[in-house]
Amino acid sequence: MYYLLLTLLVLDALLLAAVVLLQAGQGGGLASLGGGTTDLVVGGRQAANLLTRLSWWCGGIFLFLSLLLSIASARRGLGSSEVQDRLRQAAPAPAQSAPLPIQSAPAATPGTTTPAGTPVPTAPPKATTPAPQAPKKPAQ
């Protein structure tokens, strides 16, 4: 059933492509930006002909077959291929890491060394600046 739906979908896609390419251009869309009113001279909107109807039918059948194929593949269990299964088996399991502590370690004091042996840089002393005060109102 799966391969029958897939074959029908491919045949419908080829037929849809051929029908769309066989249709004559209407001169609409982006072609009208630079052409002026030439589409009125050649002919305005034409009645739906056989190719237009056939393209709508092929498009609808394509969507319907795609829906059926997705349902059939879900029932068949085609979630992954053999290659994906082999890659999952060959890949090493991710290492379990220890949970992170809730509180962080205390910061190192200047002048000491870190566990890696690099010295902790000393920070320059902070300059104290007076807090800004609101301007005083002049006495009247």
Gross morphology is elongated
Question: What is the number of helical segments per DSSP (H or I, 4+ residues)?
Answer: 5
Content of β-strand:
under 5%
**Distance from first to last alpha carbon:** 99 Å
Find the structural class using helix and strand composition.
mainly alpha
Structural Rg: 37 Å
Question: Helical percent range?
Answer: 40-55%
**How do the SSEs run, as a string of H and E?**
HHHHH
What is the residue-averaged pLDDT? 74
The tally of beta strands, per DSSP, is 0
Poorly predicted runs: none
Overview of the structural elements:
The protein is an all-alpha fold and 140 residues long. 47% of the residues lie in helices and 0% in strands. Helix 1 runs antiparallel to helix 4 (50-76). The longest helix has 27 residues, at 50-76. It is elongated. The relative contact order is 0.09. The mean pLDDT is 74.
Topology overview:
Elements: H1 2-22, H2 32-35, H3 38-42, H4 50-76, H5 82-90
Can you tag this structure with a few keywords?
0% strand; mainly alpha; 140 residues; single chain
Brief characterization of the structure:
With 140 residues, the protein is mainly alpha-helical. The chain has helices at residues 2-22, 32-35, 38-42, 50-76, 82-90. Helix 1 (2-22) runs antiparallel to helix 4 (50-76).
